[in-house]
Design brief:
The complex is a heterodimer of chains A (about 110) and B (about 110). In chain A, about 0% of the residues lie in helices and about 50% in strands. Chain A is mainly beta and about 110 residues long. In chain A, strands 2, 4, 5, 6, 9, 10 and 11 form a seven-stranded mixed sheet that branches. The mean pLDDT of chain A is about 95. With about 110 residues, chain B is mainly beta. Chain B contains no helices and eleven strands. In chain B, strands 2, 4, 5, 9, 10 and 11 form a six-stranded mixed sheet that branches. A five-stranded antiparallel sheet of chain B has the order 1-3-8-7-6, with no helix packed on it. The N and C termini of chain B lie far apart (about 40 Å). Classes of the chains: A mainly beta (about 110), B mainly beta (about 110).
Chain lengths: ~110, ~110
């Protein structure tokens, strides 16, 4: 199993550009989530999904969209990038969410200039 | 924010010593988990303790949970240089996980 994969690993955007961060898992996990990690802030939940076709907002959802058309994929879209979205983004999956460990991808380092 | 906090923010010890880090959180929880993050990498799950458990062991790891104080501690015994990493606690409420701000552990060979 490849586990949780994320692409790209690094990305530089200009303010106002849009892009999609890709996340895929091959463990047939129901729960998937996106976090951002900023220095001194720990990880903050952006959006999560409890299954295909079901998504919900986390702690910091503004400026981001998600969709979950398949069990395997959970892309994160930045609609109009802002410097405040400069961060490291992690995707994670879990068999059933609460009460189960999360498996994390390697992260995407995004810089918005 | 329901985010927890780890204490201390940074910890430096000699190889072979024990390392203790603490986590405090704000709301009632179902479970509490500890994760490790090596520099520049994703998080790796270490241990999960449920709200009705008080202590759990896994290898050199010992986790305690005090729900009355809304706090948990992670003890790493006989530390090794390879234990150098950041450690995070995570609590769950509803369908969301909440991570603490992390403890940066440095183990000096």
């Amino acid at each position: 199993n490849a586990g949780v994969t994320q692409t790209p690993k690094f990305q530089v955007l200009k303010t106002g550009q849009s892009m999609t961060l890709q996340c895929a898992q091959d463990m047939n996990h129901e729960y998937m989530s996106w976090y951002r990690q900023d220095p001194g802030m720990g990880l903050r939940l952006i959006h999560y999904s409890v299954g295909a076709g079901i998504t919900d907002q986390g702690e910091v959802p503004n400026g981001y969209n998600v969709s979950r058309s398949t069990t395997e994929d959970f892309p994160l879209r930045l609609l109009s990038a802002a410097p405040s979205q400069t961060s490291v983004y992690f995707c994670a999956s879990s068999p059933r969410g609460m009460g189960y460990e999360q498996y994390f991808g390697p992260g995407t380092r995004l810089t918005v200039t | 924010s329901q985010q927890g906090e780890e204490d201390p923010q940074a910890l430096s010890i000699q190889e072979g010593e024990n390392a203790t880090m603490n986590c405090s959180y704000k709301t009632s929880i179902n479970n509490l988990q500890w994760y490790r993050q090596n520099s520049g990498r994703g998080l790796v799950h270490l241990i999960l303790i449920r709200s009705n458990e008080r202590e759990k062991h896994s290898g050199r790891l010992r986790v305690t949970l005090d729900t009355s104080k809304k706090s948990s501690s992670l003890l790493i015994t006989a530390s090794r240089a390879a234990d150098t990493a950041s450690y995070f606690c995570a609590t769950d409420a509803g369908n969301q996980f909440y991570f603490g701000t992390g403890t940066s552990l440095t183990v000096i060979p």
